């Protein structure tokens, strides 16, 4: 019989797949998880990429240690999508797998195992000899590593044995080191005796000596009679008092049944669903246009002004797709958007809506992954990571707020853009795509106007409400005439007062968190800098801390200057904490909250804040760009932008486009129902062209002017970009590597198309020195050939031992 081999994807930054021998009699399927040894001792969870009979000639293959699942957890079409991402974004298939697959399903041999003391083995179940041995050892030792477990039972791979213990809930994996999936086990209870049972009298006599148990028993009986189903013990204790020891004592007496049951972490929607409302004439026209364009072009840009009802059009399109028994993926840029959007979609589609984002813990992600694989959801909402879910029979992808920069992943490989990746995923699944925005990315707008995408406009707000009235306050003049109260101009203060008198709400936008970005000594001018980064520490008033927003370093705020010991310290610049402080001082009798990364760290913080604002429990929200993205509040009348010029001065070719988008987007939160809203923009450069265009909502003119500049200076959408980053703890080594690499490819590019190497604005972050090279690819050049050239140059670079320790990242379409 011919030997069988399998190509395995491992979560490693190494190119290609790895060949392993399949033991005789084993049946493998593409997409299954397997445990394989890599190196001398390390065991990894791999994904089966392919199965073949081609024996490697140059080396001896290792065998697969064990199969971890009966059925594949990854679909073949997902693996094809992973391959495209690896190829296009210039990373390895293993890096895509590591990013795309839930961490809790990737067991590794440096995981630590802990005993769950509160759980016992069910009476009618038996453990295998090896599993029993490990379980007994854990009763004497609090923690053992996976490698120690393997040594105890003298097996190379112990993952299948640990899976057996995990399935019974007898062990858990130490989350301080690595988070892994364990089913959520909860205690439930029910009375053993019925109210009409004759033995009830004897039981109550016995409970006379335990009045607390007697009281709890009556409550359990009453609750069970109402619900006719087991009662969650934790919920019962919270509402009625008592503890688990009391309940166990009652169970031992045979009065109640206390048992364990696996429960879901993902909450279900319990309200009644509603009919989808009819579209307005304008929305219906857009809906019909989209349907018509889809007959010829699979991608449509829906360019609708803020509050034009784009979501209603999406819902109607989703309804049509679901009628064809197909699935829908709905991508949003921020977690904050998923809260409102999920509520709206669940009102119409109930429990067929699933939600997936980074605030979910690893166990919740696993449960949603498996539910998606089992086709329990028709609609899935999430940020960019939702692209990786195992969705079958995909019919539509909605990319909402497609212009948002947070659709692009910048913190780890692959550096993919969710919008662009969604277009490819849709094409692979023969699905349709709709890109929606009030201020489309200029690349998307250009493609739509060049007929690469379909283009549909929604130029009228819902209910014929006018766009908000925009007013620019010149801060130079306001400071000169002493018309400022802290950071708030008298004009903005007046409008806020009038808004509160009308019982309406206010949103204040300041795109910098913390209290102040700089603390400075007035005597010697010294500013505390981050010890790990070349950037000043941001002062946070609430915690009296100085924090670095790049590496996370924090230290206590000083009372005296570190350098000259002077006590005369001041802060410079403005953050959301300072604006919140100003507003609480001026409007001390109003309820004001802050919405930024610092205040939204808890899992349900977004939902609680948005619900409170929606219910008019709050009068004002002060926030960063989080508040500018697609949120819908009925009672917001006024939006204030504290320092608009701060958005214009970034060293980035997209700075003016982004500034326009943010101003228009945050302005769109005002006056979304019957009364026209108002927007006050405070700026020093009040006459700046972008501010003037934004105040008139003139997207076409802004697009025309910036696209002309982009064409002249060779920037997207007229060229493609690849940014190459070199980083190392030694500045000289990083610089030399960047220079050597650039010199090796310089002959292939015109000087206009190869910029750098150069240190970025912040040259050191997290004790790593950075150098960047920017490559521009002409439309008549082959991007694929350029990527091959760069990969070959990288291989040649790594021939020199001194350069191998420098990390090199390729960021395609930065």
Describe the biggest sheet? 7 strands, parallel
How many beta-strand segments?
36
**Residue share in helices?**
25-40%
Identify the overall geometry. globular
The fraction of residues in strands falls at 15-25%
Contiguous low-pLDDT stretches (5 residues minimum) are 175-180
Discrete helix count: 24
Chain-averaged pLDDT: 89
What does the radius of gyration come to?
Answer: 30 Å
Strand arrangement, major sheet: 14-15-13-16-17-12-18
What is the terminal separation in angstroms? 51 Å
Structural class: alpha/beta
Description:
β34 and β35 (768-777) form a beta hairpin. This protein has 24 helices and 36 strands. The strands form 9 sheets. A 7-stranded parallel sheet has the order 14-15-13-16-17-12-18, sandwiched between helices. The chain has a 6-stranded parallel sheet with strand order 19-31-30-22-29-28, with helices on both faces. It has 814 residues and is α/β, with parallel strands linked by helices.
